[in-house]
Amino acid sequence: MEKERKLIVAGNWKMNKTVAEGLDLVSGLKRELANIKEIDIVVCPPFTALADVSRAILDSNIRLGAQNMSEQNFGAFTGEIAAGMLKEFSVRYVILGHSERRQFYRETDALVAKKAIAAHAASLKPIVCVGELLEEREGNKTEEVVARQLKGSLAGLTKSQVEETIIAYEPVWAIGTGRNATPQQAQDVHAFIRKQLTSLYDENVARRVRIQYGGSVKASNARELLKQADVDGALVGGASLEIRGFSDIIKNSI
Ligand code: PEP
């Protein structure tokens, strides 16, 4: 599939997989995906598996991401993990502002922006998640919500940092529900996000930023979704927990 930007497919394991299970999964992914050069492949295990998974994928085309991080660099913040600590395990990407963090841990756009600034300061690429709730879509509020989240969550980043940021459009009603956005629905919001990036920054920035779609992506729907002009990859939850599920999404999208 010829695309303007290199596709990036990331697996968000959420609070799943012991170290042993994570190692089994990446060993299968290494085998299945060894020859893939066309797509950036990222796995985001829980913090407890980062060290071992990092060693296991050292000699592969799979890169490491984390699912969250602190906006602080060090100090008395019990239970938190700093960007510098992630770097110790060769983490390259970090998911920020996932809807589960926003919904269950009350993360705000302002906090996500602070985390994004801290991530860039440590040379981690943030994957910043935005997306509307079902009632917001039904109330025709999708663009308003996504525009607000985008502007708020990127506040304070320089243009070149925004270019190195990945946006994940994840309609909340499509996450873990088996009900994905249609390719056209995804394309419409992705094009809107790119338009917003043009007015917040400029056309060059907007052209360079990769925008992933997330929400019930699986092997059977990935190709159509990722074929859309402004869809530059996928953030995958449930289907990233199985070797076949995740590797077929990637193989089917080339
Ligand atoms: C996610 O949580 O980022 C996600 C997209 O989950 P799922 O693929 O399971 O809908």
Could you characterize the architecture of this molecule?
- This protein has 254 residues and is of the alpha/beta class.
- The chain has a single domain, classed as Alpha-Beta Barrel (TIM Barrel).
- The protein has an eight-stranded parallel barrel with strand order 1-2-3-4-5-6-7-8, surrounded by seven helices.
- Helix 1 packs parallel to helix 12, helix 5 packs across helix 7 and helix 11 runs parallel beside helix 12.
- The mean pLDDT is 97.
- Bound molecules: phosphoenolpyruvate.
- Phosphoenolpyruvate binds next to strand 8.
Secondary-structure map:
Layout: E1 7-12, H1 19-33, E2 39-44, H2 50-56, E3 62-66, H3 83-87, E4 93-96, H4 99-104, H5 109-121, E5 125-130, H6 134-138, H7 142-153, H8 159-163, E6 166-169, H9 183-200, H10 203-208, E7 210-214, H11 219-226, E8 233-236, H12 243-252
Parallel strand pairs: 1-2, 1-8, 2-3, 3-4, 4-5, 5-6, 6-7, 7-8
The protein binds phosphoenolpyruvate.
Phosphoenolpyruvate binds next to strand 8.
